[in-house]
Every structure is written in structure tokens, then in C-alpha cells.
Amino acid sequence: MSRRPEADYVVGVDIGGTNLNVGILPFAGGEPLAFRTQATEAQRGAKFVVDRVVRMIQEAMKEVMEANGRGPEAFAGIGIGSPGPLERKTGTVISTPNLGWRNFPLRDLIQNAVGLPATLDNDANAATYGEWWMGAGRGVNSLVGVTLGTGIGGGIVLNGELYHGAADAAAEIGHMTIDSTGRKCKCGNYGCVEAYASGPAIAARAIEGLESGASSVLLELAGDLQAVTAETVFEAVVLGDPYATEVMHDTAKFLGVGLANVINILNPEVLVISGGVTRAGDHLFDPLRTEVRRRAFRVAEQACRILPSGLGGKAGVIGAVACFKREKYGKV
Amino acid sequence: MSRRPEADYVVGVDIGGTNLNVGILPFAGGEPLAFRTQATEAQRGAKFVVDRVVRMIQEAMKEVMEANGRGPEAFAGIGIGSPGPLERKTGTVISTPNLGWRNFPLRDLIQNAVGLPATLDNDANAATYGEWWMGAGRGVNSLVGVTLGTGIGGGIVLNGELYHGAADAAAEIGHMTIDSTGRKCKCGNYGCVEAYASGPAIAARAIEGLESGASSVLLELAGDLQAVTAETVFEAVVLGDPYATEVMHDTAKFLGVGLANVINILNPEVLVISGGVTRAGDHLFDPLRTEVRRRAFRVAEQACRILPSGLGGKAGVIGAVACFKREKYGKV
């Protein structure tokens, strides 16, 4: 398939457990236009979420059309990033614990409602491809992305291409075991990176320490024990709270073990870390780099730059557009 | 570079900490001709080992020349597999704990002594590429190889190509942390797969249990405690010894944790396991597959066949030839 010459824009959609992001990119790339965010409200059901996404797309397209005196022919299509596992070929989400979807034909529902061709890829893959296309790892040969949030996702770019694996299931970095008899993970396994360094895991570890009598400003910030979140931990770190700083330091070490494993296996040029936790800055990156240096092979560690996201919350939308271009036209 | 039409053979060299293997392959592949094995005797120094390899190559070439009435023009070159880390471009071994080499120009020394062009790649990469070319994973798109021996090595084939990473340091599967506060590994790190499932680690775990009073035929087989090796454990398993069977079962579980990580990250079609330990057969593969099923994502686990080596001790030689062909002619 080759691009219609008048198709100057591509729609990017980033579906998350908490928020939906939509934006429109010039075909050659650039800052997302008409970018918008709304709550997912997954508990209201799959139809509600799809309707909301479709409306966000239509509104964003309208905004761009009006600003540029253009019609619907200006849009080449829609790239969608969604939690998985999913099947790219059929555009089907196989299951998403956070959204509650099973064998859900997400791509075609959006494609048919909007009337534009669409592609579907994993949300963390999309964000990683975005960082490779226009972010922290622009144009490098090999890049691994790690997204820290409610879950921990990953994406792998090798030879400038997203690597999907035999069943579109590659790059589940959050579910790498780093302590085989360790903390229980939501996936049912024990000792996954996600069981230590996801937002809820950070909060859970902080609460456990407080329950054991750690003194900290955390309780004051959160109001009560169960209200402590990763966000509260981050606030307390900024205030210089020693206990919260220790929790963050532990988080960085656990992550460092996982990232050292990734470096020992994939020896990438760049590792991009994104998500709210990265706002902790040096409190996260310093101990993380120390742990990686301690555990990864020297040659591989020295070849790898560990960087914070260059695109922040827009990586998913930008990357979904990159995935669309790659899938439909063979290159980004 | 294109192949001389009369170059009907390629020499394969597999350098290991214990043994040196040399064989000669018909250009299109096949059973190695004039295959030979000698002890490495690394303690006698680098020059000794290189001289021995060169002599083995010359003898094997002579054998093939005489049998076929051909001259030296019948050989396209030499593919070499060696422990690393190493730099393919310059043909230099950066360091090898087992052989004691540092910044050693292995490729050129052999190339100049024999008078044929040579290439150098990591030994586990070569063995993996061999399994992809002519072994257990013939022609699949994605394959990960794991070699179990004195150390644990790995190789990754993606899209039918060996994946080397940014600094030729990819696929160090043996040094993946599976227990971040676990057993000390020779690499200096804690809790690497190799610290549990290499030959010496299997022996060490077996000995620890015997020291704690486990009753077993092992002591009788080995003569004394410190003489217990992975080989003795394997013999005792064959004899039905419950303690040795438990040690093998634990080995399989530890390996399973590591392989589940590999499957969650790379989602390969095939995982090939090679090395002496695989002779334990179902005693190894049954609990290993169970652990992988327990820990890896369902979609990825179901897409992956876990297979024993198809080439056994000849994988390194065959794969080194595949590496030579790929590097010199762009395809295998």
C-alpha cells in the first residue's frame, strides 16, 4: 500500500488502564496536534471506552481540519496502542487484566466507526517505538523501552524495527523473575520486577515498612496508611524524607536487577525509562545505574545509555503513529 | 566478497575451556568431515592452544584433500567460535576467564598460520546458529540457544540472523539474575542462572546437601565428597537415586526460571538446550517445562518449543561455519 499524496496526517491513539490519549501527527512526524486526554473509566464497559475513543478521534480530526481548511482526505489512518496480549494481524486484544477485555476486535471497531484504516500494537511497544522515532533514542540501532506505571511494560527495537516475537508477546520485561521465591505478582508468578517496582508495588512496600514502625512524613502526606501511593512516596522523597528515599532507593535497585538482565541479554545501545516514577530523577537513576553497573557485563553496560523518556506522556500517541506507518507503508 | 567457485569446503573451529573441536563442512552444509577433538590444555598458554588448533586444522584439511584428490584451493576459509567477550570486527578475544586470554588476536593468528580467511564469533552464538542452520531449530524465524557446561552460554537468532547486540555482548543468558540475593556467581554477581545450573554449580549444590547429611549413592560413585561432579549426579539419577533426582529437579527449576524470563522477553519459536546435562532427558526437561509453564506468559509459552540440541557436540563446529558464510557472503 502506498500513501495517498493528500494524506498529510496520522491519528495516534494510546489506550491505558487509567487514561485515553489521542493526538494527530503530521505524516513526517512532529509535535502531536489537537492532543487530548480523558479518563478511561474501563468499569463502564468496552463499548463505552470505544465510543469515547472514537469521539476523541473525531473531535481531534475536526480541530485539525478546521485549523487547516482541510477535509477527511487529509488523514492516512489511525495507529492504536493498547494493553495486551494482542494479535496484530487481526487487530484483536486477547486479554487485558486492567480493562477486562477478552478477544476484543478493538482495531476494527475503531476503524469502522471512524472510517479510516487502523493498526493495533501493544502500548509499551508503541511508546518504545515513539522514543526511537522522535524521543530519547532517536535513530539508534537497538533500544529497549521500559514503562513504569500501574504495570511495567516493555518494548524492544532491534535494527531500527520493533521486535514482536513469534506471537506478538515479546518484551514483557515487567514479568521477568528477579527473585524466584520473592513477592507475589498480579500475574500469579513470584518475584517479577513488576511485583517490586510498579506503582502499586512501591506503595505496598512503603506501607509494609510503615506498618513495621518506620517513621516518615508519608503518613501525614497520605492521611492514612492505605492511602499511601507511589505518588505520595515521590512527594516525600522531594521533601527529603529518609524512609521514602530508602523505598525509592530499593525500587531503583530492583529495577536495576531487571535492567541488568535486559542488558546482558540484548546488549542495547539505549534503555529508555518512562512513567511517573522517573520524576524522582537522580533519586531513581543514580542507584539504578549503580546496580546495573554492579550486575551487567562490563562491555554491555558500557555500551548502553540509560535515559529518561524524551516524549513523556505523548510517547504512546507518537509511537502508535510510527507503528501505523511501519505496518502500512513498510517504513516510519 | 563472493565465493571462489572451487571453494567447496569451510573449516569449522570450536574452542572451549576443556576441548578443541575441528571439522570441515561441505559449503552447502552436511555432516562435518575429518572431525577431531583434543584437550585444550589452556594452562599451557595461548601459543600452545593456537598451535594445536592450527595443527588440527591442517590435519583435517589434509584428510579431506587426500580423500577427494583436491588441493588447498578447495577451502573457502575458517569459521572460529571462542568464549568471549570478543570483538568480531577485529577478531579479538577481549577476555576469557576459562582460557586466561586478554585482548588476544585469535582470528588473525589462525588466519595467518593457515593461510585462509577466518571469522570469529562467540562459541555459544556459533552453536546456536548451527542449531538454526542444521539442527533442532532448522529454519525457524526466532530461536534461542542455551549451552549448559562449565559455564552457561546463550545465542539468539532473530529473523534468521544471529543477534549480536551493540557490542557483540548479547545473549549472556547464564548471567541473568533469578535470585537477586542468591548464590554467588563466578562473575562476581549474585543469583545468576549459572550459579545454580552450570556443571560446577550442580556439583556444589549436591555436595552441600551431602554435607548436611543427605543420604545418596553419590558419595559411593564419586569416592569422596569433593570428587562429586555434575556427571556423578547424572549417573546417580540414572540409577534412580532420590537425592540426585532432587538435585536434578532443582536444577531444572532454576533453569526454568531463567528460560521463562527469556521467553517473556524474546517470545521465540524454539529454545534449544545443549550440553551434558541434557542427557538427563525427562529428568531435566519435564520439571523444566513445568516451571516455564508456571512462570512464562501463556501466549509466549505456547508459541515456544523447548528442544534438546539436534547436533550435540558438533553444533559449535557446524555453527562456526555458518557464521563464516554469513559474515563473508551475506548468507548461510
Features:
alpha/beta; homodimer; 2 domains; Nucleotidyltransferase, domain 5; five-stranded mixed sheet; 332 residues; 11 helices; 40% helix; 13 strands
Brief rundown of the structure:
Chain A is α/β, with parallel strands linked by helices and 332 residues long. Chain A has helices at 46-68, 106-114, 123-134, 194-197, 199-211, 218-222, 230-238, 242-266, 282-295, 298-302, 315-329, and strands spanning 9-15, 19-26, 33-39, 75-82, 86-87, 92-96, 101-104, 118-122, 143-148, 152-158, 161-162, 270-274, 305-308. The mean pLDDT of chain A is 96.
User: Describe the biggest sheet of chain A?
Assistant: 5 strands, mixed
CATH top level label of the largest domain in chain A: Alpha Beta
What is the N-to-C succession of helices and strands of chain A? EEEHEEEEHEHEEEHHHHHEHHEH
Structural class label of chain A: alpha/beta
Oligomer status: homodimer
What's the total helix number of chain A? 11
Beta-strand portion of chain A reads 15-25%
Interface with most residues: A-B, 47 and 47 residues
User: What is the third-level CATH name, the topology of the largest domain in chain A?
Assistant: Nucleotidyltransferase, domain 5
CA radius of gyration of chain A is 20 Å
CATH superfamily of the largest domain in chain A: ATPase, nucleotide binding domain
CATH-defined architecture of the largest domain in chain A: 2-Layer Sandwich
Given as residue ranges, the uncertain stretches of chain A (5+ residues, pLDDT < 50) are: none
Based on Cα principal axes, name the global outline of chain A: globular
Strand order of the largest sheet of chain A: 3-2-1-4-8
- Number of beta-strand segments of chain A: 13
Q: In which range does the helix fraction of chain A lie?
A: 40-55%
Mean pLDDT of chain A: 96
- The overall number of domains of chain A is 2
Give the N-to-C terminal Cα separation of chain A. 14 Å
